[in-house]
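task queued by scheduler; priority normal; single chain, no ligands, no partner chains; default sampling; output format set to structure tokens
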Amino acid sequence: MTPKDVAEWMLAEFKKSNELYQEDAVDQIERKFGQDFVCENQSGNTVIHPKVLKEFRKLTEGQVMWEGGDRYWRLRQKGDPAGRKAD
């Protein structure tokens, strides 16, 4: 498995409902793909490894927005600001 494989899985999950919650993705990635694809952030929380996120960004360029407050990715909508973050 590679970070790209995990990112492709994330994209497939995203396409099911046009959204993907970070917490759900982290849990499933850790179970399905193992510890190599998650890491601990400065706050001590388990998060998706940056290498996986980089690949996910490549796969979803211009299509997906990050909602930081609710910690999930969603489909880009008309009127969204430029960039990848909604807030």
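post-processing summary
- The first strand starts at residue 19 and ends at 21.
- The mean pLDDT is 94.
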